[in-house]
Amino acid sequence: xxxxxxxxxxxxxxxxxxxxxxxxxxxxxxxxxxxxxxxxxxxxxxxxxxxxxxxxxxxxxxxxxxxxxxxxxxxxxxxxxxxxxxxxxxxxxxxxxxxxxxxxxxxxxxxxxxxxxxxxxxxxxxxxxxxxxxxxxxxxxxxxxxxxxxxxxxxxxxxxxxxxxxxxxxxxxxxxxxxxxxxxxxxxxxxxxxxxxxxxxxxxxxxxxxxxxxxxxxxxxxxxxxxxxxxxxxxxxxxxxxxxxxxxxxxxxxxxxxxxxxxxxxxxxxxxxxxxxxxxxxxxxxxxxxxxxxxxxxxxxxxxxxxxxx
Length: 310
Prior knowledge:
By secondary structure, the chain is of the alpha+beta class. Among the domains are: 11-101, Actin-binding Protein, T-fimbrin, domain 1 (Orthogonal Bundle), CATH 1.10.418; 136-247, Orthogonal Bundle (Actin-binding Protein, T-fimbrin, domain 1). It has helices at 11-14, 19-29, 43-59, 69-73, 77-103, 126-129, 136-154, 172-181, 188-192, 196-211, 219-222, 229-242, and strands at residues 263-267, 277-281, 286-290, 302-305. The protein has a four-stranded antiparallel sheet.
């Protein structure tokens, strides 16, 4: 988005002189930084450029810990990734979910989900974990707010989203968000009959071609045992960024559990490769839910849907 545009071919190499970093922060913040950039092959000038960018982050209340100019100038991969993730978190996710809080009648999101499995905000490696620039509490608060927003947008289409990892493997969650934006773009009944790969490809293609949301992911990124949570968070946040009118639409009480009508339902027979995608029929309407069960056993003939976590 710079004028003229800048292209990044190798993040770890291209970031080492500070130009890409300063340009990125200029675009994100709307403030001028590039006028302080000094082009030079000498290390001292490269370090100075990076130091100015890091100083700008600190002045923007992004508290940097254990990230210094020398590490970035040397292309330290874990620290570069930690820095970029925190820029994404601060300038995109935290800002967007802050709007959610302001638009809600109750913004008591300070208590994030408990337990090690529910903390989606921790970087995945120890070398990055010690370089968190936004507090863990802030990360939990921002990501939890985004998760609640997703849940409120997808629940009307019968898609249960519990996290930013395995809940997205079937592709139904991505499609449900798209349908919440434009109901004409997605047919959830047809999606239920498709494979996860087909649904993911459909979702990413529709989002890019119809909604103008850049394709940051490929099906292969999600069709793994443990999809990268930070990548999914970053991608999903784009939907909120591109369609801010959806922010406070039904965001009334962020800590209130979402009720599901208690009913006994029959499960539609599906082949083994689709057994995690289950069509639920009720008397009043047709709903779709993703039900996890032991794959070594057939799907149960009935599932009781109720409003408790179990």
